[in-house]
Every structure is written in C-alpha cells, then in structure tokens.
Amino acid sequence: MAVRVNEGNFEAEVLKARVLVLVEFYSDSCIPCKQMSPILSDLEEEYDNNLKVVKVNQDFDNNLAETYKIMASPTILLFKNGEEVNRIRGVRKKPELEKIMKELL
Q1: Given CA atoms 70, 92, 22, 19 in this order, what sign does their dihedral have?
Q2: What contacts 69, CB < 8 A, 6 or more positions away?
Q3: With the CA atoms of 96, 98, 101 and 105 taken in that order, what torsion angle do they form, in degrees rounded to the nearest 10?
Q4: Would you please indicate which residues are annotated as catalytic (active-site) residues?
Q5: At what angle do helices 94-104 and 31-46 cross, to 10 degrees?
Q6: DSSP letters of 21-54?
Q7: What are the sequence ranges of the domains in the chain?
C-alpha cells in the first residue's frame, strides 16, 4: 500500500530514495484519484524492490503541490536519484504506466 508523505518526510522518502519513486498528488474528493489507487497498488506490488509508490494529499500539503506546480489531480511525478524524470496528468491505464516504468528502470 502506498505510503502517504508530506513536506516533513518528502526529502527522505522521495528525494533520497535509492529506487524509482512514483508520487501521486491526489485529493480525497477526486474520483479519478480513487480510480488510480488499485492500479498504483498493482504496480507497487509487481515492481516490488524497484519501485516505491507514495501519495501526497494536495489539500493538506499544498506547499509541496505549489513547489512541484501541481495544477490538477491526479498528477503523478516519477523521481529517480532525487530528480523528477517524468510527469503524468490525469487517469492512465496500467499498460501505459508499465511502459513508462520499464523505460525508467
């Protein structure tokens, strides 16, 4: 299950991670975000030691949302070695996300 991160632990959990990190910026009231949850859980399970999935609630952590210029939810950022390497906006199907993961791993 994806870990919820916030401004206090974002650096440790995302920027200093030794694996690819998928960060979903979401909102509790966002229906498309809820649709993404099972897909992200599947990816986290399938890419077990190579991918870390975390979530940022942009309603509560709006400083992070502003820092990364998040304009809509869901927005997924992928980080590798502390750098943003990809940005995905809106709902995506699992095969599309898998293709992106394979390119980055």
Answers
A1: negative
A2: none
A3: -140
A4: 30, 33
A5: 50
A6: EEEEEE-TT-HHHHHHHHHHHHHHHHTTTTEEEE
A7: 3-104
User: DSSP character for 3?
Assistant: E
The residues facing 86 across adjacent strands are 78
Tens of pLDDT, residue by residue over 14-65, are 999 999 999 999 999 999 999 999 999 999 999 888 999 999 999 999 999 9
| Alpha-carbon gap, residue 56 to 76, rounded angstroms | 10
Query: Which class would CATH give 3-104?
Result: alpha beta
Q: For the residues 2-17, what does the mean pLDDT come to?
A: 94
Quick one: pLDDT band at residue 2, thresholds 50, 70, 90? confident
pTM assigned to the model: 0.93
Q: How far is CA 26 from CA 55, 60, 63, in A?
A: 7, 10, 14
